[in-house]
Automatic annotation (TrEMBL):
The keyword Transferase applies. One of its GO terms (biological process) is photosynthesis. This is Pyrophosphate--fructose 6-phosphate 1-phosphotransferase subunit beta-like. It comes from the Eukaryota.
Length: 131
């Protein structure tokens, strides 16, 4: 399927496809797909990229900027298409997302979530902005 999408991207020359693959704790599926299809970019949470995200406490914006920079560099070369493989577990390596999930879990465990959104006041400003 990834190969078919890559062919579509090359033939039209104007689309980027983001493919989310299974893989929470280890991105073996993403790695195997990358080895077989050679995508434009693959983000592997158990690879050095995933560890860099966690170790350097990169934000969601930092990860997004990395993807954007790859797209911009390719555009400079005249390649306005590509495939980006992302394992579904990558988001769990981003420290600010971990904090948001922890805060939401705490709120859900001890509070009633109202439709007016008053529960959002219990989030820290950083988590609220990310939410």
């Amino acid at each position: 399927m990834i190969g078919n999408v890559m062919t579509d991207g090359r033939s039209t020359g104007k689309y980027y496809h983001f493919v989310r693959l299974m893989g929470r704790a280890a991105s073996h599926i993403t790695l195997e797909c990358a080895l077989q299809t050679h995508p434009t970019l693959q983000l592997l949470e158990k690879s050095s990229f995933g560890y860099i995200v966690a170790a350097k406490k990169l934000t969601l914006k930092n990860v997004t900027d990395h993807i954007v920079n790859v797209i911009l560099r390719r555009a400079d070369l005249g390649y306005n298409y590509g495939i980006i493989l992302i394992p579904e577990g990558l988001i769990n390596f981003i420290p600010e997302v971990q904090q948001l999930i922890a805060e939401l879990n705490e709120i859900l465990a001890h509070e009633v979530v109202d439709e007016d959104g008053l529960w959002k006041k219990k989030l820290t400003s950083q988590s609220l902005e990310l939410f």
